[in-house]
Amino acid sequence: MLGFLIEGVTLPRVLLAIIIGYLGYLYYKNFHYPRHVGPLKTIPGPSNELLLTIKFIYARATGVPEKFYKDLHTKYGPICHSGLGLVAISDPEAAKLIYSSYKFEKEYRFEYCIENVQNIFSTCDKKYHSIRKRMISLAFNWKSVIQLESHAAIHCVDNTIFAINEVLDNGNTQVDVYDLFHRSIGDVISDLVIGRCFNSLKKPNFPATKLSVCAPAFRLSEV
To answer: Do residues 84 and 31 touch, judged by C-beta distance below 8 A?
Structure first.
């Protein structure tokens, strides 16, 4: 109680000061720092990050975010601030650089790509990528790939194109790419290992159970 006997210091004023200080901290962390202090400060964009964030939220709420981004990129270029401490990118090369390397931090939704299965292409874990790369590098070195090229061209490319065209010619508007992917791998493996190709891509009714012999290779191809 003695703390509140100091002249001019009351509980409401202390609480107000705490609230103002906390709001100031949030403003600095989420709006001022990303735009004017942090590593993204050199990226072009409106100087008022808070106002930009309000415009961004309004565009999302009204259902016209594409216009918001179009106007933003037209004015500030292919890479610019877009509010909420984020950067909008419309440059394909820059996007490819970011998503093809584990060195750039990804948002949590990126982890759920490709059926939420971590593989050598989607992983952001450097150790995981290094281990998987060593596992398959012996089988898929430059010399081996050259030797397998003719088989892959026939079974993975030519026959896959044939299967897709056949599906479309039958009046279908959808193609089960995942099934074709497994069939093409099965054809290549059966030709190389067994010595006789399944030709499952050319046989729509080919029993999927026969492809089970290639299951270990399927799992490796999804690594």
So the answer is: no
Identity of the residue numbered 17 = A
Strand partners, 83: 86
Dmax (CA) for the chain in angstroms is 95
> Hey, what amino acid is at 189?
I
Q: What is the pLDDT of residues 154-207, one digit of tens each?
A: 767 888 888 888 888 888 888 888 888 888 888 877 777 666 778 888 776 776
pTM of the predicted protein model: 0.47
Helix axes 177-189, 142-152, angle to 10 degrees: 110
97: Cβ contacts below 8 Å, ≥ 6 apart = 104
Packing angle of the helix pair 159-169, 177-189 (nearest 10 deg): 140
Is 117:208 a contact under the CB 8 Å cutoff? no
Amino acid 7: pLDDT: 60
